[in-house]
Amino acid sequence: MSNCVRTLWRASVLSLLMFSSAVAQQTTLEFDAKESDGLSVKSKALYPEGLEYDAKRERFLLGSIRKGEVIALYKDGTTTRLVDDERLRSVVGICVDAERGRLLVNSSDYGVATRSAPSDKFASVALGIYDLATGAPLKFIDLSDLKPAEKKFANDLTVDADGNVYVTDSLAASIYKVTPSGEASVFLSHDRFRGDGFNLNGIQYHKNGYLLVAMKSDGSLFKVPLNDPSAFTEVALPQPLIGTDGLVLNGPDELIAITNRASGVVSNTVFQLVSDDDWSSASIGQTFKTGDVYPTTGVVAKGKLYVNYGYLHTLGSALKEGEELKDTFHIQHVGSE
């Protein structure tokens, strides 16, 4: 559900993989990480969905579905609360805009956050913009009225070269656009983006002037031109990647798709995608099975890929049954040089 465009065009984790678009032949990075590889995050009832990396301060950032906050995890294992804004419900996608010193945060309400309100379930969506260094609020843009007759869930987000933010709405079959001044609009809405459950999800800005957008329910991947969004096309894939949640763009021709579950399919797989035709089509390289941990998204930190294990599939039932909420989560290190 979350991850921003990377500036690691040539030093990407998938470049490290050295994947041939025909056959994976020159692999220098294997998706064979052990369960112990990565970082444990001890934070009661965090249930992280969004994951980012603040390279300047060498810290991971995680957004909480349950608490509606963003925490910072440092390399020594300590955590601090970076964003604590009473206006946030569930924090879903988060995005580091390092060039402008901003942290972009999607807020949605689907009834599992401590600040959830029954009347706002699938109705309240917003974009919060915060100072990346301090977490101080800069802007808060309510997106709820952009599609007034629809159920809404602001999911993932990305930012283009000019500072415009694009937000996927998984229920309203739409992509929203928010300008640097805070002006919000419907960038694209189409019935092709409708389906069972959550639909449009992971989104990435490509420097060639388009967005790559995943549809979770049916496993499609779309290419959406910024100058003519209605002319979007579907990226030809060898198979649908049902359950795609987060996308991580690690170079102009390399993309990681992180899947969990959707439409009765339990995938829980990290897929390597490679394109040699500017994302008219893509092939599948290596894959990595995460286990039943509900992986949501990933991030590249110092040339290494990390994937968030959020266990979101257990939150609703735990609340319903009055069970103890989880207190430990994991950022899995999938590959290294």
TrEMBL record:
<feature type="signal peptide">
    <location>
        <begin position="1"/>
        <end position="24"/>
    </location>
</feature>
<dbReference type="InterPro" id="IPR011042">
    <property type="entry name" value="6-blade_b-propeller_TolB-like"/>
</dbReference>
<dbReference type="InterPro" id="IPR053224">
    <property type="entry name" value="Sensory_adhesion_molecule"/>
</dbReference>
<keyword id="KW-0732">Signal</keyword>
<protein>
    <recommendedName>
        <fullName>SMP-30/Gluconolactonase/LRE-like region domain-containing protein</fullName>
    </recommendedName>
</protein>
